[in-house]
UniProtKB/TrEMBL annotation:
It catalyses: a 1,2-diacyl-sn-glycero-3-phospho-L-serine + H(+) = a 1,2-diacyl-sn-glycero-3-phosphoethanolamine + CO2. Is synthesized initially as an inactive proenzyme. Formation of the active enzyme involves a self-maturation process in which the active site pyruvoyl group is generated from an internal serine residue via an autocatalytic post-translational modification. Two non-identical subunits are generated from the proenzyme in this reaction, and the pyruvate is formed at the N-terminus of the alpha chain, which is derived from the carboxyl end of the proenzyme. GO terms for molecular function: phosphatidylserine decarboxylase activity. Catalyzes the formation of phosphatidylethanolamine (PtdEtn) from phosphatidylserine (PtdSer). It comes from Stenotrophomonas geniculata. This is Phosphatidylserine decarboxylase proenzyme. The record marks 246-247 as: Cleavage (non-hydrolytic). It is found in: Cell membrane. The keyword Chloroplast does not apply. Keywords: Cell membrane, Decarboxylase, Lipid biosynthesis, Lipid metabolism, Lyase, Membrane, Phospholipid biosynthesis, Phospholipid metabolism, Pyruvate, Zymogen. One of its GO terms (cellular component) is plasma membrane. GO terms for biological process: phosphatidylethanolamine biosynthetic process. The keyword Lipid biosynthesis applies.
Length: 280
């Protein structure tokens, strides 16, 4: 384990993330411009793809960080049977959920039940598939629907806010099942589907298109919201949620419904809209 990763065990995660949130939402131009310039330069952000490519026109760093893309910058895979990639970034891991466990890194795994906060919620995904997509600070930070789905329930699972960078993924046991996260359950034409928005150190918020801000407020207990009967349907490739800093989204699929695109593997760079999997 790296020294930086080891130090994160002792850091006041929520305090640091709250401080980062204050900076991200500051409308002081000296603060916002410094943050935007720093991130743009350090992470080589491609502003040519942004609907608004002028970094000086964003009132806050958060507005810049959650910027929309220009029309046509991303398109959904042409095969109507393709489940599409939910975000820009890279594949951390993907594969089969074996004996209820999801592979994180060499020597590291966690259970689907731990991730979702419930043994019952994990049952439909026994022997199913998972895909973990890491969004770096340079990436587009809105998460979209892999497939058309009707929102059934969200589950806010409290936890820590470890970094989700490669060093932490390799070094922190059960990382994604320990970090604070928002579990989004959907009903689809092939059965249930889950998208999990995993928070991280300095991630100061998760927002959804149906209810706005979900994290914070940081939780101290599991909170469920039932959306059955409300008719909240999101189309394949439609925006679902957004992060206010780089993090991770994990998609779970039930067994027997799809096969991953053959070119995908650990560390594969990916873009929103490309084929994630194909329905059988």
């Amino acid at each position: 384990m790296s020294l930086t990763t080891a130090l994160t065990y002792a850091l006041p995660h929520r305090l640091l993330s709250s401080m980062a949130r204050s900076l991200a939402y500051s409308d002081d131009p000296r603060v916002s411009r410094w943050l935007i310039d720093t991130v743009t330069r350090k992470f080589n952000v491609n502003l040519d793809e942004a609907a608004n490519p002028d970094p000086r026109s964003y009132a806050t760093f958060n507005q810049f960080f959650t910027r929309a893309l220009k029309p046509g910058a991303r398109v959904a895979d042409a095969d109507p049977r393709s489940l599409v990639m939910p975000a820009d970034g890279r594949i951390s891991q993907l594969g089969k959920i074996e004996a209820g466990r999801i592979f994180q890194a060499k020597g590291q795994s966690f259970t689907a039940a731990e991730l979702l906060g419930s043994d019952e919620d994990a049952k439909p995904y026994n022997d199913g598939l998972y895909a973990t997509v890491y969004l770096s600070p340079r990436d587009y930070h809105r998460v979209h629907m892999p497939w058309t789905g009707t929102l059934r329930e969200t589950v806010h699972v409290p936890g820590r806010l470890f970094s989700v960078g490669p060093a932490a993924v390799n070094g922190v046991p059960r990382l994604f099942a320990r970090n604070e996260r928002l579990v989004c359950h959907f009903d689809t034409s092939f059965g249930p589907m889950v998208s999990v928005m995993v928070g991280a150190l300095l991630v100061s918020g998760v927002e959804t298109v149906w209810s706005g801000e979900e994290i914070p407020a940081y939780g101290d207990r599991i909170t469920r919201k039932d959306y059955r009967g409300q008719g909240i349907q999101l189309e394949r490739f439609a925006e679902m949620a957004r992060f206010n800093y780089g993090s991770t989204v994990i998609v779970l699929l039930p067994p027997g419904v799809a096969e991953f695109a053959p070119q995908l593997g650990a560390e594969s760079p990916v873009q929103l809209g490309q084929a994630l999997a194909t329905l059988r």
